[in-house]
Design brief:
- This protein is an alpha/beta fold and 398 residues long.
- It is built from twelve helices and seven strands.
- It has helices spanning 3-39, 44-78, 91-110, 155-163, 178-195, 210-224, 247-259, 266-272, 277-281, 330-335, 342-346, 376-387, and strands spanning 120-123, 131-136, 166-171, 202-208, 233-239, 315-322, 361-365.
- Strands 1-3-2-4-5-6-7 form a seven-stranded mixed beta sheet, sandwiched between helices.
- Helix 1 packs antiparallel against helix 8, helix 5 (178-195) packs across helix 6 (210-224) and helix 7 runs antiparallel to helix 8.
Length: 398
Amino acid sequence: MRAAEMREVGRLAGEAVGGFASFVGEMHEGIASRTFRALGPLGVPTRLVHERATGAIYPAVRRALAAGPRNGANALARRAPAGALPASASRAGSFALGALNGAIGDALARSGSELALTMSARRDTTPATPKIVVFVHGLCETDDAWSLFGDKPAYGDRLAEDLGYSAVYVRYNTGLHISDNGRHLSELLDGLVSEWPVPVEEIVLVGHSMGGLVCRSACHLGHADDRFWIEPLRHVFCLGTPHLGAPLEKAANAAGWAFGRLPETRAFAKVVNGRSVGIKDLRFGSCSEADWCDCDPDEFLKDRCQDVPFLETATYYFIGATLSREEHGVLGRVMGDLLVRYPSASGGGRRRRVPFELDNGAHLGGATHFHLLNHPAVYHQLKAWLERPRLALLPAAV
């Protein structure tokens, strides 16, 4: 880890530890305020003394608690070798950065933090071909996630060997708005196409979870901006993507709203609502800036998502997983794949529908959300769909 990263870790750790004092102070104030309101005018003298004391004590405690991690990290940073590798150079460091950016990546970006990820791409080492497959990971993940699960080579390696695609893996800050990452992805793909060693004839996008929404957003914005990469785009795959929202984010929104109703629990609301805007975009599957612009990000379960149409020149597909073997099994209906329910992954909601064609969707039974990153049945289906123009139509079920 580089010295600047060490100092930033210390700063964040100090804020987290020091924030505990603020949390206790806010709870204290919430409880006391109700007591003083009950006392009315009789409690005014005591309230003034109380406010002066707490106004001095809690900030001092916060500064003292924050100083320890910060000073310790600064001491380590002074001893860091000049040629130290960044945290992202190791797999463990990469996953830690991915999780951190997913949780508070918007705040890291606003502060110019050394730990804030920017959108980047790496390509495999095989010779460049006219066909490119681009992999876009999900929330709190990095590009390394595609090779984490399963005992088979990553999808990109297998598509390169079987169908001659060149694989490109995207890394990005999942704590930013999905629409912002969609624009960044569109710009990145434009540069990729213009700098590719050979003329690009076909582009395939594969998004896992949030990555599917980022791909849909990039397609919409790329078309609106008349980007070069839109012309060779042919296929968009969404694996476990919460097109209609994720239940855990809806639960977090409801919890934050409930905590905010009472002064005694308002401090809990601030903690819950401190999650990134990227996570909040998953509440209803936001793909567009219009979904979140000029509104309260913590309003109670208000679906403002607008339709983002599919491009006519590309084919869109989904694969959704459930814990149950059957698509409509009880466990699958309740838990989905642990993070996304099948109706959301397939876009088949009661009020909103994402227009996937019947033959362009598949179900993976007995699997979790993360099995979709590297599963032989998923690869078989991806390959079958990509080969379909040259072969007879294949069944949609995995």
